[in-house]
Each structure stands twice: as structure tokens, then as C-alpha cells.
Amino acid sequence: MERFVATQNLVNEEFRKQNLNNNKTHIVVKSLKTRNKGMETQISLLAQTPLCPFPERHADVVTASREKQIENPKEMLSLLNVKPILRFRCVNKYWDTLITDPIFVNLHLKKSAKRNTHFLLITQHVTDIPCVSSNGSDDRYVRDYGVIPYSVSTLLDNPSFTLSVDEKYLVQPKGCSNIVGSCNGLICLVARPVTRQYYEYSFRLWNPATRMTSPKFGFLRLFHNTSVFPSSYDGHYNFLFGYDNSTDTYKVVASRYNTRERSSDVRILSMGDKVWRDIESFPVVPLHFGAGSELSVNNCGVYFKSSINWLAIQNKLWYHRMDIKNITVKQFVIVSLDLGTETYRLYLPPSGFDQVPPYEPNVGVLGDCLSFSYCHNETHLIIWQMKKFGIQDSWTQFLKISYHNLQIRYDYSDEYMKYHFNIVPSFLSKNDDTLILHCNQEISQAILYNWRNNTVVRAKITARKTITDDSSLNDALCAADYFESLVSVF
């Protein structure tokens, strides 16, 4: 009771100070305009209402009532998007403290994850730079990535659109070159400057909603072109980003496969630590080591429920797409790294997976479940969901979609097309009726398929820099699902 009274006195003092500048507060609150206007109005009125001193009598009753009143702002604020919440920080010190409180941040995170779904649109901007080399005319280019959160509901309502990519969404101005992954509203970026002796990796965390970016951390060198240190042929690092729920820690996983020594090494960096820790090597080597670590690369690992999951092929140390002709169903396995225990588990594909497709299956996340999808008989896409993560028997076939219904018409008699065509389910809408898919033969497009109504729409996404020359080439790709959060990057 004494602690609460002290807190109440502090709040009253803050509101008394606030009343001296009431006109300014009124302007700030009045300017708040969002789609949740009614809720913001209630919060604004509450913010401007001074809390009265406690009466001496019936203290217990009044205390309970007052505590309930003080807790109400947290519940109401937690239902808003990040932008209007940040505007309320300027009301007074009490509100600023409330909004930055880790307890409130976690409350908002849980609610935002359920209702505030966005895509990350990964844009690629390639600018040609004419130059002259010693051998004659030569061209160079500069590549920059953009990462733009985009509302799924807006995408469904407006399938074709052009985005102006503001500089705040570009990766290069942040001193980075690529995207590692996204988790809880945070995006992990990587820089990889190259010297004659080594690559030097470093990382930054970026919260697009709060527009905060962390200092660089996790410096890691990979030497090359010497007899003492690993050469560039020993494999580049792949990076993945995730969250360990058991310790409330964000982690970066670095892994690579050494083809000369036929072994893998895996390291983990926990946020707050300055040293990478070596952990046990992969029990089975995942596919596409060295293919890159950006979000657009399939089967390079997916974060799900405090784990990183890869597709792998047992008894196959090095994989090329044409090798799939010689692989059996029993060789496929899912390697799962638990970020809490930092140990591995192996999961088998669904028992209904009885035929090796011409293109490798895809492991992803769909409808809050680990998913496994593949081409069947060159005519259908089959999607499975692991309904209870980690339980082998919980694999359930979700959909079997005809390519005809998806309006996909490719000549599979073409050997190249047969072994390179791939379609990946990226997102399942809240009511489970609309799938968003990406086909590797349809650049800068998403396929919106309503399986209940059997209708399909092609979403054409065009990205343009706000400041760019006419020679820029701009592509956009729907990648991982994302939601806004107040999680700090520090």
C-alpha cells in the first residue's frame, strides 16, 4: 500500500507539471490520428485527466479502483500499432516510462503477433556504373537491398502496386550489405567488407517500427588465400537469427561447410556477449551451404518457436539440383537446432511423402506451424503442417493444389524447367482461406490463392527508389512474415 501511495504521489506530481503546459499537451494529443481513432481518443482523455488524491476513508476500496484505472492504459495501448503508441510518449514522464517498460513491451508483442501481420518486401536495387578497365571497356554495379514492412491486408486488398523505397528502408546506408533474418519485429542485418586477407562480418539489429538501429556487434573474421587460415573454398558463413524464449535472448547462428575437410562448424553469438561460442557440428549437413543467407533463399534455414530448422539429405555431403534423380525419399530429413539447449533434433518428413519431386521440398512456416511442401507428379503442390511442433505423428496434409488452379502452365518436358521450377507457400491468412505463394519463375510477383473459392490473383509489386537514376533495376520479393513491435535493439 505504501509503495502504491508513493507511486500515486509521483503520478499526481507529473500531472500537476503537465497542467502548466496543458495547451502543448492538448495539441500533441489532438494530432493523433490512426484507424483506431476511438481507442486513441479514450487514451487521450485519460492522459489529460489528473488523478485525485486518495481519501482517508475506505482506502482499500479506493486503492483497488485506482489500481484498475492505472492498469487500463496498458491494456488499451497494447491494442494499438507502434506509431501511435510512440506519439503518446511525449504526453508526460509517466506515459514515457509506461511505454518503455519491458513488461508493457512484452504485452504489446504478444498482441501484435496475433493481429498485426506484415510481409517483409525485400527489394533489390542494382545500379550500373560504366567504367574502363585495363583490358578495355568494363562495367561495375552497385547492389543495395531494401526491407519494407507491408501490411498483408493491404496486399490482399490491392494486389498490384508500386512502392517508393525511402532511404530509411535501405540496408546499405546502415553500413550493411544483406539481411540475415527477422524475429519479434527485429531485423538482423549483416555487413561483409572484404580485404585481401579476410572477410570481416559484423551485424546490426534494426527495428523498422521504432526506426532504431543498434551499433555493430559480433565481429567475425574469415581468412582466405593463405596456407595457415581457411581459404575461400572452405565455405562462406551462412547466418540465421532467432530468439531463445527460455532465456529471453536473441541469438545469431553462424555455420559453414568445409568441402575440403568434409566437416561443418557452427557458432552462436548471444546478444550481450562479445565472443562467439562453438557448438556441436550438424548431425546431417543442410542443403545449400554457401548459397547465401538472405531471406529470399529457400531452404537456408527457417526460425520457428526458439529453433532453427533446415532441410537436409542424409548420406549426401554435397548437393547439386540434378543430383535429386539419385536421391531416395528416406534420405530427406529436417535438422532442428534448439536455441535454448543448443542441441539438435532430427525430424522425418510426413509419411505421405512417398515420391521424390524433381525440385527439392521446402521447409517453412505456415499458419503458426512448421510446413513441408513439394511438387507432386508435376501437376500439384502438396502442403503439410506439423500441428504440434516436435511431434512426428502430428504431420497433417493441409492442401493439395492443382497447378491448373494456380494458372501455372510451364512445359515440364523442358529438362531445365523440370528441375528448376519451384513454388513456395509464404503466408496463410488469418481465416485460413487465402494462401500467398511465390514462384521462382515469376519474379516480383506473388500468387494470391483463395482455396475455398478456388480463385487466384497475381500480385505485381514494383519498387522504385525515391532518389535514383534511370539505370536502376528494381525487383521486389515477398519474404518472411513480420509484425511491428516495441522491442529494443539495445
Reconstruct the topology from this structure.
Blueprint lengths: L1 H19 L1 H9 L6 H11 L11 H19 L4 H6 L5 H8 L1 H14 L1 E17 L2 E16 H6 L3 E5 L12 E6 L2 E6 L6 E10 L4 E2 L3 E7 L14 E7 L4 E10 L4 E8 L6 E3 L22 E2 L3 E7 L18 E7 L4 E5 L14 E5 L2 E8 L3 E7 L8 E8 L12 H6 L2 E6 L5 E6 L5 E6 L4 E11 L7 E11 L7
Parallel strand pairs: 3-24
Antiparallel strand pairs: 1-2, 1-25, 4-5, 5-6, 6-7, 6-8, 9-10, 10-11, 11-12, 13-14, 14-15, 15-16, 17-18, 18-19, 19-20, 21-22, 22-23, 23-24
Characterization of the model:
Helices cover 20% and strands 38% of the residues. The chain starts with a helix and ends in a 7-residue tail after the last strand. The protein has helices at residues 2-20, 22-30, 37-47, 59-77, 82-87, 93-100, 102-115, 152-157, 415-420, and strands at residues 117-133, 136-151, 161-165, 178-183, 186-191, 198-207, 212-213, 217-223, 238-244, 249-258, 263-270, 277-279, 302-303, 307-313, 332-338, 343-347, 362-366, 369-376, 380-386, 395-402, 423-428, 434-439, 445-450, 455-465, 473-483. The chain is built from nine helices and 25 strands. It has 490 residues and is α+β, with helices and mostly antiparallel strands. The chain has a five-stranded mixed β-sheet, with no helix packed on it. Strands 4, 5, 6, 7 and 8 form a five-stranded antiparallel β-sheet that branches. A four-stranded antiparallel β-sheet has the order 9-10-11-12, with no helix packed on it.
